[in-house]
Specification:
The complex is a heterodimer of chains A (222) and B (554).
Chain A lengths: L2 E5 H14 L4 H5 L1 H9 L7 H16 L3 H5 L2 E5 H12 L2 H11 L9 H17 L3 H12 L6 E2 L1 H7 L31 H13 L3 E6 L2 E6 L1
Antiparallel strand pairs in A: 1-2, 3-5, 4-5
Chain B lengths: L2 H8 L17 E4 L4 H13 L9 H16 L4 E9 L2 H9 L12 E7 L5 H4 L4 H9 L1 E7 L7 E6 L12 E3 L2 E7 L2 E7 L12 H16 L8 H11 L12 H10 L5 E4 L13 H14 L4 E7 L7 E8 L4 H9 L2 E3 L9 E3 L6 E5 L7 E4 L9 E8 L9 H12 L6 H4 L10 E9 H11 L3 H9 L5 E9 L7 E2 L1 E6 L13 E6 L2 E4 L11 E4 L6 E2 L6 E3 L2
Parallel strand pairs in B: 13-17
Antiparallel strand pairs in B: 1-2, 2-3, 3-4, 4-5, 6-11, 6-25, 7-8, 9-16, 10-11, 10-16, 11-14, 14-15, 17-18, 18-20, 19-24, 20-21, 21-22, 22-23
Helix pairs in contact in B: 2-3, 7-9, 8-9, 14-15
Classes of the chains: A mainly alpha (222), B alpha+beta (554).
Chain lengths: 222, 554
């Protein structure tokens, strides 16, 4: 894990790459300004006006790149969060979120779709960056498999984590210093009680929803 | 039963009426292991007997407890030397400004207790023998003024922390100043930071913070003069929209304004003004703590404004003067936040910020006993209070502040021409982590220290010759294994007297010292290039700079 100081210009390139890596990326392309506004703004207390202004700045920037406006500004990003951003783009999570907001009103407020998307994404990233290691790992695993499993059980989740049959962690990379990573890329985190605790924690934090089906708990993204 | 036996029974221990010693009139009181449990409470009782309130009242009980706790902390045997008619300049000033106007009588004189870490007898104290005098001086621990008030009894207190800090939290690193005290016609010296309680009428926590800070700076540097509380109030009045006496406390923007009236160029860091980033786990609190650490490591005591989380309730003000030891758990956490240049992310040396290694800070807080070592997240005794503002009393020519200095250093260390990846690549392993330690220092002290500790002759000569402004920002570089023993392999020195934008970061560079090479720039050099490059044949690891803070060892 590492922290980068990255210019807005570079960040835009990163997002372009993530969008290009995504299947069915029409919506992501259409709402690129909102995604960038979510990453570069601060919308505490649902500050819709501020989100609107930032989207407008990004729309201008995308149309007419300017060094003065946004090009030379920097933000701080961490590798782990870039990894999450990538999987949330490529797995369809952001797509689903955009669709959800486009189809209905957001949180009961009458706001433009664009502001709603930017604020909702900002809230998602702000909540995820605060997660501690175990919770983050579980949430990222679930996000990685969102396209195939928008709802999942604990057993499915455990099967995605590295195990004897599939020892390689799908999230591992050189920049991520995971506490549970052991020799040969295996993971010591896969213990049922730990996974249970993490799922409960994500449920309590409002990141996952829950329903019961056939005597099993089924988790879904909120 | 004989007469003698009858008398003996009458005067048995239980019935014996012994006249209790009145410690309030004793110049010399010796406290030893054998008697401290009896003497300390009696001493405190005697001292507060003539106070406005009864000694049994809650107010006086608290003050007696404060004094009792202080005395119990001192290493035994020790001697208390009392001065009964002490004139304390800050108390006398508040007396004539405020207390003398009151209807009920308030005494003019303070009482001062001085502490010596040995048994001192009257005949020794007043003797001419220089040997004895030296021995007494060497054992001087400090002094505490007791003011004849009902609130804020404990006035100007100067005690060397080595005698009162709990050994469990040592070592600590603190900024102190050497004070001269005249006690019964004799000079004594103590390394201390001033502590006093607020009297809640002329001084609240913020005024106490200013007074302690200004006293420290006036005693340490000739650029500042000593001041009295009424001068603080006068300056507060200039910027307040209502009266300032009796004091109701002040906000930090006014506190920094008052500091600037006394010759400082303060910076005020506000927690909510720090940028937040959606894609970074480094919080605003983390960043504020880093700024605090850079200044503390620079030996600059700073004022901290604590507010309840949620901003409901009253705030508090304290002074931070030092830091605790490295927390090994935090080293691991700090590695997760290492800085990497985006442009060279696949081959650069990641930078780990040593400011993240520390959790405990040494504070002077009038709500707590002198010199408290507490975690940054819980500096106050009250729960749920966090640091909201940091006021840094900077010297007028320290233009480059800590956050800009950190940005410049980061940029230089990953610079394609001056960076660590270019000059230390042969010394470091591929993509090896580098720990950085950022602080400001006076060039005079830095040159002196380097001339004493650098082993290579040409390195010493270069440091001595290169022109530097009065203050410089220094960023020492360490391999992770060498940080705790503070053995650096390199450093960069940048100009603190200019606040250049990030685009011109390399123009701030005065000197770069990487393994086996030193590059220097002279003041006439306006381009980002070196005037001289000195190659060093044998360039050892060198000692990290330790002159900004005093180490209080275990």
């Amino acid at each position: 894990m590492a922290e980068y100081y990255i210019s807005y210009k570079e960040l835009e390139k990163v997002i372009d790459q993530y969008i290009a890596d995504s299947i069915d990326n029409a919506q992501l392309k259409e709402h690129k300004a909102e995604i960038l506004a979510a990453l570069t703004g601060d919308y505490e207390q649902n500050n819709w006006d501020s989100a609107k202004e930032m989207i407008s700045l990004w729309e201008n920037q995308i149309e007419k790149p300017s060094q003065l406006l946004l090009g030379s500004r920097y933000i701080r990003v961490q590798q782990i969060m870039l990894d999450f951003l990538k999987v949330s783009c490529t797995s369809g999570l952001i797509d689903a979120l955009i669709l959800h907001i486009s189809q209905g009103s957001f949180a009961g407020f009458t706001v433009s779709v664009g502001s709603g998307i930017a604020v909702a994404l900002w809230e998602l990233f702000t909540a995820v960056k605060k997660l501690d290691d175990w919770d983050f790992c579980v949430y990222m695993q679930a996000t990685t498999h969102f396209r195939e499993h928008s709802e999942f059980t604990m057993d499915e989740l455990i099967s995605w984590l590295p195990n004897e049959e599939h020892p390689i962690c799908n999230m591992h990379n050189d920049n991520w210093e995971c506490d549970y990573l052991e020799e040969n890329d295996t993971c010591s985190f896969v213990r049922k009680d730990k996974i249970e605790q993490a799922l409960k924690s994500l449920y309590d934090k409002g990141l996952l929803g829950l329903r019961k089906e056939d005597h099993k708990y089924v988790y879904k993204f909120k | 039963m004989s007469d003698m036996e009858t008398q003996a029974e009458l005067y048995s221990d239980e019935k014996l009426i012994v006249e209790e010693l009145d410690y309030s009139e004793e110049i010399f009181t010796i406290i030893k292991d054998e008697n401290y449990e009896d003497v300390i409470p009696s001493f405190c009782e005697s001292i507060f007997r003539d106070s406005l309130y009864e000694t049994s009242s809650d107010v006086m009980s608290d003050y007696m407890l404060d004094l009792r706790n202080l005395l119990k902390q001192l290493p035994r045997p020790f001697t208390i030397v009392q001065e009964f008619y002490h004139i304390d300049s800050s108390y006398r000033d508040t007396y004539y400004t405020y207390f003398s106007n009151q209807h009920f009588h308030v005494k003019r004189y303070s009482r001062r207790l001085s502490f010596f870490a040995q048994e001192v007898r009257e005949e020794d104290f007043f003797a001419h023998d220089t040997e004895i005098q030296k021995q007494i001086s060497d054992h001087f621990m400090g002094a505490c003024v007791l003011n004849p008030l009902t609130t804020g009894v404990m006035g100007r207190t100067l005690i060397n922390p080595q005698y009162v800090v709990n050994s469990k939290v040592l070592p600590i690193y603190v900024r102190l100043s050497r004070y001269e005290l005249n006690i019964y016609g004799k000079k004594f010296f103590v390394d201390a930071f001033p502590y006093r309680m607020q009297d809640e009428e002329t001084m609240r926590c913020a005024e106490v913070t200013i007074l302690n800070l200004l006293e420290h700076y006036a005693n340490s540097y000739r650029d500042y003069r000593s001041i009295v509380p009424s001068e603080i109030l006068e300056n507060e009045q200039k910027h307040s929209h209502e009266r300032v006496l009796p004091s109701r406390g002040i906000s930090y923007p006014i506190l920094t304004k008052v500091l600037s009236e006394f010759g400082f160029s303060p910076r005020l860091y506000n927690l909510s003004s720090i940028d937040k980033y959606s894609l970074s786990k480094v919080t605003q609190e983390d960043e504020l703590k880093r700024n605090l650490h850079y200044y503390i490591e620079s030996g600059i005591p700073v004022a901290l404004n604590l507010l309840p989380t949620g901003n409901n309730g009253s705030g508090h003000s304290i002074v931070c003067i030092g830091h605790g030891n490295v927390n090994k758990e935090l080293i691991k956490k700090a590695k997760r936040n290492k800085w990497i240049s985006w442009d060279n992310k696949d081959h650069c040396h990641p930078l780990i910020n040593s400011a993240d290694f520390y959790e405990d800070y040494v504070v002077v807080d009038d709500n707590q006993p002198i010199y408290q070592v507490r975690p940054f997240q819980q500096l106050s005794l009250y729960p749920d209070m966090r640091v909201e503002n940091i006021a840094v009393p900077l010297y007028k020519r320290m233009f480059l502040d800590a956050s800009d200095a950190a940005a410049i250093v980061r940029s230089i260390l990953h610079h394609e021409q001056f960076g660590i990846d270019v000059w230390a690549d042969g010394f470091l392993d591929c993509r090896e982590d580098v720990v950085i330690r950022l602080f400001m220092a006076s060039s005079r002290s830095l040159k002196y220290y380097r001339s004493k500790t650098l082993k290579n002759f040409y390195a010493r000569e270069t440091y001595a010759i290169v022109p530097m402004p009065r203050f410089v920002w220094v960023c020492e570089l360490y391999r992770t294994d060498n940080y705790e023993e503070l053995k650096a392999f390199g450093e960069i020195i940048i100009d603190a007297t200019s606040a250049l934008g990030r685009g011109h970061s390399a123009c701030s560079l005065i000197l770069m010292h990487y393994p086996n090479v030193i590059g220097i720039r002279y003041p006439e050099q306006t381009n980002p290039e070196f005037d001289e490059m000195i190659e060093l044949e044998e360039d050892d690891l060198f000692d990290g700079y330790r002159k900004n803070l005093n180490k209080i060892p275990l």
